[in-house]
Design brief:
The chain is α/β, with parallel strands linked by helices and 224 residues long. The chain has 9 helices and 5 strands, in the order H-H-H-E-H-E-H-E-H-E-H-E-H-H. A 5-stranded parallel sheet has the order 3-2-1-4-5, sandwiched between helices. Helix 3 packs across helix 8 and helix 7 runs parallel beside helix 8. The longest helix has 27 residues. It is globular. The mean pLDDT is 92.
């Protein structure tokens, strides 16, 4: 099951309500609010860099495995992390991702194995394997890193950067984004990813604003 399927199952009553509210606003705007959010996702995907200032921690967001195999998309994130680690020997790597597919391995565990095969010593890596989607990835990162973790770098796919950085800021994680790929590639898959990310980001902002306006501390606690 992909991240979207896991999110639907775990959203709870407040999440279901804000999803309906978000969908209603999209319909009322004739799709314009969704289009604007998707264009923002695209703009971040196009302009994000992979030439990065020095960092203390390289945070690598996981991707669902194909059985027990790292997918090409996840491999791109891991290869970018390996290049960054080679260029910055002081930086450590935090691999994020739990058990999201059938099989005994978590995303983070397979990511660690992948990087060790590329010469990154295990001593430079930490991982967490309890999270099931992006928000939990970042919540677990915040828990592991604690207060004052230093400079953070968030590595993920270009289409995923806008939402990932938005969620990180909502959690008070100041992380610079780093694109896994050299450049954005136009393909049907990536267009679908962009449009879906627009839905997710629209839902996030509608839920956040609604929770603030209604002073729903329970909902705010889930995303803060």
């Amino acid at each position: 099951m992909g991240e979207q399927g896991r999110s639907w199952r775990m959203m709870g009553g407040d999440g279901a309500f804000t999803l309906l509210l978000s969908s209603g606003l999209i319909l009322l705007s004739g799709g314009l609010s969704w289009l604007l959010m998707s264009l923002y996702v695209l703009s971040v995907a196009l302009r994000s860099s992979n030439r990065i200032a020095p960092t203390d921690w390289i945070l690598v967001l996981g991707r669902q495995l194909m059985g027990t195999t790292v997918t090409l998309e996840y491999a791109a994130r891991l290869n970018r992390a390996a290049l960054l680690a080679a260029a910055q020997p002081q930086a450590r790597i935090l691999l994020l991702g739990g058990h999201t597919s059938e099989g005994p391995f978590s995303e983070a565990a397979k990511g660690r194995e992948f990087l060790m095969q590329r010469g990154i010593p295990e001593s430079r890596m930490q991982f967490e394997d309890r999270s099931r989607h992006t928000l939990e990835n970042l919540q677990q990162a915040r828990e592991q890193l604690g207060d004052n973790p230093g400079r953070l770098l968030l590595v993920t796919s270009r289409y995923h950067l806008a939402r990932s950085q938005t969620l990180a800021r909502g959690l008070d994680l100041e992380a610079q984004g780093c694109a896994a790929e050299v450049e954005f590639v136009w393909s049907m898959d990536n267009v679908r990813h962009l449009l879906r990310e627009g839905v997710y980001l629209h839902w996030y902002w509608v839920g956040r604003i609604w929770s603030v306006l209604t002073r729903n501390q329970k909902s705010l606690a889930r995303i803060s």
